[in-house]
Amino acid sequence: MCAQASYVEFFQDTNFEHKLTRVNDVQTDVCYDLVCADSNFASTSAKCGGLPETGVAFEGGSAMIAFYTDRNCTSDYKWWPVDSQSDGDLGFPDSFPFNISSFLVINAWEISSVESACSKPLTVDTRTAAIE
């Protein structure tokens, strides 16, 4: 399932400072790797919007977004309910206790594929000189 207006943004610093990248048209149950072979990607905060808010794995309850410490969504993770995005309080900390290397929006709790955010078209955000 793809929400066309969905996105997840990642920031280098706490409090959503210095944007590193934005992944658009996020699909559920697809793992997105954020670490490129030629980069030192280290995201410590994130924002999202437009993601589906319910998930079948949770019996019609909130879908979840999980942030992983390593590639391929197979390592330690922290997760938050997605339904908080509609009330303006994502509940995400403004400073993760770890660097984010991959993420997954959970609907059925089965990873259907792994995609690299590095293969998506990137543009430069001239305000922060970061990749967007």
Helix content, binned percent: under 10%
What is the string of helix and strand elements? Answer: EEEEEEEEEE
Describe the strand arrangement of the main beta sheet, using strand numbers.
Answer: 6-5-7-3-8
How many strands, what sense, and barrel or not for the largest sheet?
A: 5 strands, mixed
Low-confidence stretches: 121-132
Rg over CA atoms: 14 Å
The number of helical elements comes to: 0
What portion of the residues fall into strands of 2 or more residues?
Answer: 35-45%
Whole-number average pLDDT?
A: 75
- Separation of termini? 23 Å
Tell me the number of strands.
Answer: 10
- Domain tally: 1
Shape: globular
- The class by helix and strand makeup works out as mainly beta
List the helices and strands and how they pair.
Blueprint: E1 7-13, E2 17-24, E3 30-33, E4 45-49, E5 64-68, E6 77-81, E7 102-106, E8 113-116, E9 124-125, E10 130-131
Parallel strand pairs: 3-8
Antiparallel strand pairs: 1-2, 1-4, 3-7, 5-6, 5-7, 9-10
